[in-house]
Amino acid sequence: MTDLSHLREDFPILSREVNGHPLVYLDSAATTQKPIQVLDAVDAFYRTENANVHRGAYTLSAEATDAYEGARAKVASFINASSPNEIVFSRGATSSLNHIAYGWGLNHLSEGDRVVLTVMEHHSNVVPWQLVARHKGIELVYLTMDDRYEVDLSGLDDLIDERVKIISVSGMSNVTGTLGPVRTMVEAARSVGALVVVDGAQLVPHSPTDVQDLDADFLVFSGHKMLAPTGIGAMWGKPERLEEMEPTEGGGEMIADVGLYESRWAPVPQKFEAGTPPIAQAVGFGAAVDYLTAVGMETVRDHEQEITGYAMKRLAEVPDLIVYGPSDPENRGGAVSFSLADIHAHDIATILDQHGIEVRAGHHCAKPLMRHLQVPATARASFYLYNTTDEVDSLVDGLFDARSLFGLDS
Ligand code: 7TS
What is the average pLDDT value for the chain, to the nearest integer? Predict the structure, then answer.
């Protein structure tokens, strides 16, 4: 087993207690905890370099600009982008997907065009396209999920025709841990000249990413799900896609010239970064990718597969527990959704919380998938590099306690 338990010392929050028990944090799919290296980078920026970027001809502003642009270069190299200019900083995956839907979709799609999605998408990869559909009369078409919790590709050939202009797919479901069929989508899209958007919110934090190898058109992800502060994320795009895309927000920093009635845009990526950006957050994002790079993303992935495999094995010991997701830990991510008999997911989460164990309960911002699975809600444990098998054991003990509280042992 890949042992990363020494890393726990880097995460101050992991030494606190919750309800009299050591914290067992199992909600990293929602947001991850932050290592001291990220906290220190943000703190040092505010203490020593804080100024606005891209405007002042004075030392502090130049240093702040270097720190901000340095973070862009780090994020670019983390996903093997050809240039830092292919990275647009955003608030996160949601705002990146909205940029793409509005900035590209609104300007290039017309009535009758199709956008292909899957039923496992997070709402942030559904609702922006519905908003574009209202303006442009485009059609949304969904791939469904089979009973092994894989995206069902059986009807793909019939689905892909000249009407399809965009395929937008999650790299990993935040509910079932299903890996999206990204490479198949890239091939299918090429045959009809469609674009591929990859929602990497649950993919980029958990495994090595190489956008040149992936060959999609856009990849979006959130910093806070990969050790960075909230309020920062990225949209990677192929240079030609970013050029042909319109900005979705206007204001300072994104212009080359402004007249009374017309303006010209700054070059990519500034064209998409209106207003004062999240500077300290970007610095923290840079420190987070430095941290992950030092651990090694293959190590992160191996550890996650091992701990997910261990969790699947231990959860199978709990009677009446159903896991919603692929069974092979090597072919899935570390988000593990489950139900336990007919105990409501919120009750499970509340009982686990009494043991200091934090899991998410609800629809996980994936209502179409919940309807497909025919469940109103699930409880979900999700893992990251700081989680241990001991914590999985605590989760299982807590679930046995939930069973007895609900009188299920008698
Ligand atoms: N896409 C996926 C697959 C996600 O899991 C999430 C957030 C998003 C997009 C949106 O990311 P944001 O950073 O812009 O909010 N997922 C979750 C979750 O599973 N629990 O809380 C947020």
Answer: 97
